[in-house]
Amino acid sequence: MLVWMLVATAAVWLWPLARAQPLCGTRTIRTGKVLDSTQHHYGDDLYFSSNTTFLIKHPCRKHIALYLGADIFFTRDNFESSLTPFSIPESMEVGNPVVTSAHFSDRILLLVVNQKVYIYDYLDNIWDEAEGIQHPVSHVTGDNCCYSLNKLCTEMHNTVFAYMHGEDLSQTHIYFSDNGGYSFDSYSPGNQLELPGTLGGIFFFHSLSQSGMLAVLGDIGMFFYTEHPLKHRMGLSFQYDSPLEVIIVPGQRGFLIFWNEKHLFMSPNSGQLVDTVRLTKGENVLFSSITDASVTIHTIATNENELAVLTREDHLYYGSLGFLSTSVIKLPHQPVWSPEVALMFHDSGRLEILTPVFDGSSLAFDFEKCSVNIQAVLMEPELQVPKCKVELLQGQFEEDMYTIDMNSLLILSASFIPRPGTSPIPLVMVSNPYSLGLHAFIEELGNTLDGNTKYSLNVQLQQQQHSGRTHPNFTSSIKRPTVSTLIMDIANKEISCVDLKPLSMLISVGCDLTKKIVVQNKISACTKGILDPVDLQRNYTYIIEKEAYDPNFLGHKATNDLFVVYPYKDLGCPRLVYFNTPWKPVLELWQEEEMKEIVDAEYVLVEVNGLFTYSYSLTADSAHCRSQPQNWSSMKQEKPSFTFTTWNRENYISCHEHNKDMPLRWPNAEYQVLGGKTDNEIIFDQRNGIYIFYLSIVDPYYR
């Protein structure tokens, strides 16, 4: 009996100690105060228009962030020093500086202030107003790529939309920037603006290689898309009771967060399916939606994999983003809420609760930080969190970018170790398989090491067109460079797997930058002594007679002769061709320093200075066309703003396939496509001179 009494007493004594463990430890940042109360900073203090707070971290430069609240603060050191409120120079003449939206675009911060877009270059401390926006806007949206210096990553930084949230779709003005927000042009998403309802947002989803527009029809929201095949259908509708802010989760994985004070939704696939965020405890679902718990959301935070929510009832929730579903749990209570508080993830599993603190003796605000170690908190028995079933998940391809062209095969390897006695299922997601035509094949191999089974996963990626696993008539309808994201994760992963981040990589389907097309040049004008390479390097100039070229590329004679400086550095010595000998350039495919093959794909040529003193050996009839072939004249009519890439693999249509929209009406028309299944050649007029051609491969299925 005495032993029983001692054990009971110990249990009663230990229980309050376990519950007394604080959620987080608070510290106050007071450093960096170089301004005293007698000093003034010049400019108009910005403030956020919402009743909520929000903190935006730069996805790539993790130490840079923007706090949005009654005061706005911009930090270059993750709020590790006191700060004066963020202000816009008086020279901008913004009036009452209300901020409704903000976005980091690589090295600049974009702010919508009083329905105009302003640029803050924080590296050079320069403010400016964005060009090209002629109507009021309320929001800017964009994304960032942090994996690589690849050109496609740069394009992701530079893609930005500006628009007025809540405007009628039939009357709204949408603006698009491809230079990071410095300047905008009008953007039209086609017949989507003919829909009834209002605009809930427009976004470029790089993992789908297309934009999506959120349309609000009464109390229903749904996404419409711009490119094949999603443009033929819409996302599933979801309840939309009041304006929702939309967050593109970093990492190009397709996750979106929709939220306001009363609602919280998420999408794992760029709006195609929008679902609620569940509230769970242990293995049980308490509410199918966290907002059914009668809470008012004050602020949220997200990183690539995690989500945190703080309510005005002083409840803090945490969860991990999942492809199958997303749920959150309520963390142990500790008073942290105030009207100024905001959340941010400092790192994976490290949540910080940030509160600006006014100091009457200084213009600079201090910051209280309460840091939450999520992994430690989830170990508390009262939360009933199941243990993570996986001990290790790692791969060579984490946070990198790879390129797949038409005939290449990409093999990726990863490994995972399950916790003994469990059998988790690895999950591989390709964000854009139908658009990119990718086929993923998983090979699973297991071996035992120190009592644990280590599984090796090999993932093979290849264009479906060449994988041998599709119908012979299958073709991908996407003929332009596209991007997809591959993610390897564990299906229905436990919330306790905080440190087990999904493996993620970007896939560029398009031109492999290690490859290049080289025109064979065995006989040049220099080797035959007709031209001197030394002279060519000294700004060699030649004349094109006005009767031989048209600056408008329409085949008409010019009014003046043209003086051309030969670009020897780019082109080397010209190839030598005789006018009475039909000519077809021999194309070589090189990868780095190795010649891979002779190119037999279809391609087109255009003389860059407008010379038209050449023709083609074949006609539509002699080329055995079944439909009317395209030519430069027809392509210029379709796109008056002519460039050398006007005719390309995106708009090329082979005449050797039946096309009811282009029946063969002019069989004697010139056939202007070289390569492929024909022996078409160039025939030069009897004229001495230099021709410079721009060559474009139009076969959409060539490498």
Q: Which outline best applies?
A: globular
Helix content estimate: under 10%
- Taking all Cα atoms into account, the compactness measure Rg is 31 Å
How can the largest sheet be summarized? Answer: 6 strands, mixed
Low-confidence stretches: 1-19, 35-40, 472-476
Structural class: mainly beta
Mean of the pLDDT scores? 87
Strand percent estimate: 35-45%
User: Helix count, per DSSP?
Assistant: 7
Strand order of the largest sheet: 25-24-29-28-27-26
Topology, number of strands: 49
Task: Compute the separation of the termini in Å.
Answer: 82 Å
Protein name: Cation channel sperm-associated auxiliary subunit delta
Organism: Castor canadensis
Structure description:
It is built from 7 helices and 49 strands. Among the domains are: 390-509, Immunoglobulins (Immunoglobulin-like), CATH 2.60.40; 514-703, no CATH class. A hairpin with a 7-residue loop joins strand 4 and strand 5. With 703 residues, the chain is mostly beta strands. The longest helix is centred in the N-terminal third of the chain and has 18 residues, at 2-19. The strands form 14 sheets. A 6-stranded mixed β-sheet has the order 25-24-29-28-27-26, with no helix packed on it. It has a 5-stranded mixed β-sheet with strand order 3-8-9-10-11, with no helix packed on it. A 4-stranded antiparallel β-sheet has the order 1-32-31-30.
